[in-house]
Amino acid sequence: MYLTWFDSNSWLLEIGNKRILIDPWLVGPLVFGNQGWLFKGEKRTPRPVPHDIDLIVLSQGLEDHAHPPTLKILDKMIPVVGSANAAKVAEELGFTQVRTLEQGYTYSLDNQIEIKAVPGSPIGPTTVENGYIFRELETNFKVYYEPHGYHDQSLQQETPIDVVITPIIDLALPLVGPIIKGTKSALQIAEWVKPQVMLPTAAGGDVTYEGVLASLLKAVGSLEDFRSLLARHNLSTRVLNPTPGERFEVPLEKQPAGVA
Q1: Strand ordering across the sheet containing 207-210
Q2: Is omega for the bond preceding 178 within 30 degrees of 0, making it cis?
């Protein structure tokens, strides 16, 4: 299994001989509703757009997950799996094979990867977006991705999950508190599913941010703090710190026979 992190929430997952692009932000700035004065992210280092993509997976319909400038340049024949909001964005941009994956349901990629949608981040009072579990059928390795730190209790039934990609530090606003849930939420999912490896998402990377909202956001915690927290709770999970744009192999040990 290989991963490449492209800053923010953008990942390339290589598993089961498939290349899956998750929440891609690869070109152009990141803004919400064309309101650059409020929030704008820009990559310091342009990187090549990944090739030979077998599937695009979108967790949310917001611009930092379904990034319109990036989706516009990708091949519209690539299949897309997403939440209802994300699928709508992909369809409007011309993708021809779009599957809305409701929570609790699965999607099979060429009988090699099973992708299960699980409850993720609440967006507004009535909408809950998707997290995902990717399972390689040959090895039974599982990868769980949720980019805002909202983990549903049903995940305890999925134990063990080998790799967890989720925020590990909090991103907070004054008087509001965390809008990205890191430390406590990450510890909870580590205790629930006992991952071999955890990887941070949402914060950091080779990106500059500006705007009113960006100036108010405060990062709380660090990877070293979280490693110490895991140790205090007798969890052997390894926390990796990926370098943006660099492909790396995820060090995993096969589970004993009979472990689901």
Answers
A1: 30-31, 40-43, 207-210
A2: no
195-215 residue pLDDT tens: 999 999 987 788 888 898 878
Domain boundaries, the chain: 2-240
φ/ψ (deg, to 5) at 153:
-60, -25
Residue 132 pairs in a beta bridge with: 117, 145
Helices 223-232 and 183-193, axial angle in degrees (round to 10): 40
CA distance to 59, 69, 81, per residue, from 51 (Å): 21, 17, 18
At 141-157, the pLDDT tens digits run 999 999 999 999 999 99
DSSP conformational letter for 49: P
The answer to whether the CB of 142 falls within 8 A of the CB of 164 is no
Output the pLDDT for position 175: 62
Domain covering 2-240 assigned CATH 3.40.1160.10 in the classification: no
pTM of model > 0.90: yes
Give 166's contacts (C-beta < 8 A, 6+ positions apart).
144, 145, 146, 147, 149, 151, 185, 186, 189, 198, 200, 201
**How far, CA to CA in Å, does 5 sit from each of 25, 65, 181?**
10, 14, 20
List the beta bridge partners of residue 136: 113
| pLDDT of 258 higher than 70 | no
